[in-house]
Each structure stands twice: as structure tokens, then as C-alpha cells.
Amino acid sequence: MIERPLTDWLPLTMKEVEKRGWDEVDIVLVSGDAYVDHPAFGTAVIGRIMESEGFRVAIIAQPNWKDDLRDFRKFGKPKYFFGVTAGCMDSMVNHYTANKRLRSNDSYTPGGEAGFRPDYATIVYTKILKEIYPDVPVLLGGIEASLRRVTHYDYWQDKLMPSILVDAGADMLVYGMGEQPLREILKLARQGVPFSSMRNINQVAFLHDASTELQEYNEWSSVELASHEVCLEDKIKYAANFKIVEVESNKWQANRILQKVGDQVLVINPPFKTMEEAEIDQSFDLPYTRLPHPKYKKRGPIPSYEMIKFSVNMHRGCFGGCSFCTISAHQGKFVASRSEKSVLKEVEEITKHPEFKGYISDLGGPSANMYKMKGKDESICARCQSPSCIHPVICSNLDTSHKPMTELYRKVDAHPAIKKAFVGSGVRYDLLVDDFNKNNQDGNHDEYMEQLVTRHVSGRLKVAPEHTSDDTLRVMRKPSFKYFRLFKEKYDKIQEKFNLKQPLIPYFISSHPGCEEQDMANLAAETKDLGFQLEQVQDFTPTPMTVAEVIYYSGVHPYTLKPVKTAKTREEKKNQNNYFFWYKPEYKNWIRDRLTKLNRPDLLERLLGSAKKESTNKYTGNYNGRKRK
Questions:
Q1: What does the record's cofactor remark say about binding (predicted)?
Q2: Residue 318, annotated ligand binder?
Q3: What is the largest CA-CA distance in the chain?
Q4: In whole angstroms, what is the distance from residue 96 CA to residue 99 CA?
Q5: What fold does the segment set 503-610 form as a domain?
Q6: For residues 519 and 496, what is the distance between their CA atoms, to the nearest angstrom?
Q7: Among 14, 27, 140, 510, which is least packed by CB within 10 angstroms?
Q8: 389 appears as a binding residue in the annotation
Q9: CATH of range 6-269; options 3.40.50.720, 3.40.50.280, 3.40.50.2300, 1.10.10.1800
Q10: What average pLDDT score do residues 477-501 get?
Q11: Which CATH architecture has domain 310-458?
């Protein structure tokens, strides 16, 4: 293997800065993740964009925040600003389970070792930088900053917190996918414009002194939320705020959002319109090495990199709008798809990787089968305020053709160095059920599904019905479980036709708002009847900037302000979760006692009635808490 020069990566040390012949650094990025120079890692993307605009960029990856803080000082004072991100995950989701137990590993650290980033990393890093360099602006970005940009409920402290800008003391925040606002910020910074004057850029948030007048820009109208202080006193007002934030975040012609917090006003400018194909291609086509920085070689592999190093992300965004998911809140409701040329170029790059053995692990995205999907008449999309394009029904204006994906899969398959290209991302199965999706006029969904099942399933296919109760599914913004049954019939027919044995892996959530204990018992019975034994399943975690988080905290749905029952105590959550494991001997007496107390002999009979009826099939699922639709 030929060693690449160290200067192929963005510098992590002063020695690497000097190797490039620089006498100073323009921008320093501080990240809670190890530095992997790959388009799946936000710090690499942001750094490469800055580099492409002619800026000298250095990275402080996973700095030690407990010692004399030398890591934060190593590059000195940057010419323009510091950029801070907690990394690819919210640091609290990264650190803790749904039961608030500390995780023993970190997928974004060499060797999977835990303990290399603090809780609330964005806040901790920014406070340190402001203490050392009080006159240097700090720009926040990444998923932690994005989802905490406004008053939000923090599950781990069990309280409302203000915009992360307040606690961090940063100068500005970029929310969502940051390429478009970042290029605007860089252009103005080069011209010498201070951050305090960058007030007319889309997709940024900042704090404004409430005693001075807030200027109007770009003919934006403003909508005011209940203040942070009012939210602290009134959970219903907090819930009502969320509806406004979600609606404005998903509009093409959105309003500016204002919220008073103390003696300041939080200002959230409207988002940019979804990136066009050429823009997203530009981001993915930057000169990444696609490798972790060489400094990590002796510390062991980085699990998150190992998982994606031979995968291709074909698009961003998700129009599902699921109540528990953060993807649309961060990446947007509208899908931004790469060109075929860009995807095939990345496939070619992967084939040159020294460890590549001919297998692409994933041709996918947030939901694998949303590539190239968008409104047929985009003027209708421009006026749309719905948080989902497919709930409660699929929008008649949504082009759900799977043809572009089918053709692209075939082109990847035809590459001489590719033995197999799998789809590892979760498939949005409801788009493939004709009873639910009426937009399948030319049968291209069936062609796609046959191509998928026969060529691109790596042993098993992941789908996410999430629940069996229609009431719970409505709260989740998911379709009725009857459509999963229809999908399974279709899937099984294709398997039978081609003599395949590739189990479906359905994912389910317990303790989601709107779910009661009897609903979980029924879920166990329904999935048992279908031949599933569920092993790795998910207990609901309230994550900032989701409908489900708002319901969990406030007790009401933000769109109706009507009460929704939610399991909150550890005992209630454990009781719901236990039903997943009806087939394990250690749970059987407990289930018998609970269903007897609930007066549900029918469910008891279905679950434990006859040993002969119990399925011997064992289908398992795995869920990392971030990418489920």
C-alpha cells in the first residue's frame, strides 16, 4: 500500500500546518469526533468546503477539555473564526441509552473508546474558546447545535433548556445541512464583515439585544414564539411553539422566527431552498482522501468509519416526517439527490480503496428508496406546510417513481470491479405497497422491488413498521400495520419466485407517546403470528426537535394541543419493552401475571397458549437510534 502524504488531509497539528508552508490558520474547526476525511463526516465536509473557497483550515479533533487546555491553543488565534460541532451525533444521545445509562463505547472514536468528548460538547468547547480567545467569533454547526437552536426539552436533565446559543455564548449558529449558509458566511468574512453584521443570511440563528431595534431583511416576515420564560411556566405554550418551528423549517418561503430569552431575542432566519443537483454534487465531489487521519493508526479502527467506508450516500433529506426522527429536522423534508455521474464517480473512488474486495455495503440514504423523489409541480411544494409528504396519505403531487434508482443500481452492478452492491439503509416499505401508494402507474415499484430483493439484499432486508397499533402509528406519523402485512406478502412472493431465503428485519419502538402496555402485548402477538422473534429493538428516547419529544414533555400533541398518554417512569417503560421478548423463558411468568392483571386472556393465549404454536424462526433487528423512518 502506497503511503499518502500527510498534506492530503487537513492539518491536525502545527507540524502539519508548517508542512504546508502556512504562517497562520484562517479557520479552526473543533469537533467531538475523530477526523475522518470522508463525505459522511460533517467536519470533513465543512473543512473541504472552506478549503475550496481558498481558506487555510485546521482541525482540533476530540480535544482534551479536562487538562491545561493545550489542545485548544495549539493553532493559536485563527484569522477569521472558530467553528464548533459536537460531531455527527448529539453528544447526549452518543453518551447515554434510553434508560440514561452511560454507554461503554463511542463509534466516532478510534478503538470505539468512550470518554473522548464531554456531555453537551458544543457548549463545553465554546465556553473554553471564549475564555481563551474572547475576541474571536465562534460559529456553531452540526446536529447538536441544529436540533437545540430554540427552547428545547433535554431528557437527560429533565428540563427545558434555552437555545444552545445562550448556554454556549457563541456568536452565530448554522442549522441544517450547512453548505449553503457557510459559503455566504465565508464570502462576507473574507470581505471583513464582522459576525455581528451578518444578519441577512438564510439558515443561521443569532442572539440580538432586545433593547435595540431588529432590522428587516430580504422582505422576510417574522413570527414570534412564546418566550423561553413563558415556556418554563407553560408546557402548552412550549408545545404550540414546536408546531411553528417545524412548519417554518419545512417551507420554501418561510418566515423568520423570533423568541425572547432573558434580555435578548433569538433570531432564526428562514432556511435555504433545498440544494439542487449541481450543489449537492459539488459537496460530495470535493477531494476527500476517504480515510481516517493517519495519526489514529495505532489506536484501532473507528467503528462508524468501518461501517460506511464502502457505502455511498445517494441523497439527503426525508419526507417521512416521523414523530420520533430528527432527520427531516436537520437534513430537511425535501430530498436533495446527487446526479448519477457523481454517484458513479464515488463508486469508482471506492474501488481504488486498498481494502476493497468488490462489495459496496450500502447504496442508500436516510431512507434508501427516496432517491430523485420530489414534487411533480414544484410550485405546489413551494406553498406546502405539511411536515410529511406521505402521512396520513401520500401526496398526489409526489413523484414516487423508483425507476432512477433501479437504473442506477444496474449501472453500479455493471461496474467490472463490483461483485455486489447492497442496500444497507432502511427501505421505506410503504412506498412500495400499491394499496397505500397510488402513484405506481407504470409498475416501476415492482421492477425496483424485484431488482432490490434479487440483487441488493445482504442476507436480510431492514424495514421499519415501528408498531402494530393504528392509534400509536398515527402519533408516529406512520402508516397502518396492514400495509406492512401487504408488503411482506409481496416480498415473500419474490423470494419464492427466485428461491431466496432473506428474512425481513422489522424494527419496532416501545414506550412511544400514544402507546399503552396492552398495545405492546398486542404487538408481540401480531409479530409472533407473522413468525418474527424480535431481539434488538428500541425503547423510545425523546430527542430535541421532534414531535414525540414535545409530547413526552408537555403531555399534548403540538398540532392539536390534545392530551396524549405516554409511558414515562422507568417501570412503565420496562413493562412495555418486556413484551418484545415473550419467547424467552425468563419473561413468560411475568407476561402471564401482567396479562392476567390486565384481564386479557385472549392475548395470553396468543402469546403463551401453546408451545407447539410458538415459532422457531428467529429474526433480529438492530437500530442505532438515528436513521429510522
A1: Binds 1 [4Fe-4S] cluster. The cluster is coordinated with 3 cysteines and an exchangeable S-adenosyl-L-methionine.
A2: yes
A3: 77
A4: 8
A5: Transcription Regulator spoIIAA (3.30.750)
A6: 32
A7: 14
A8: no
A9: 3.40.50.280
A10: 97
A11: 2-Layer Sandwich (3.30)
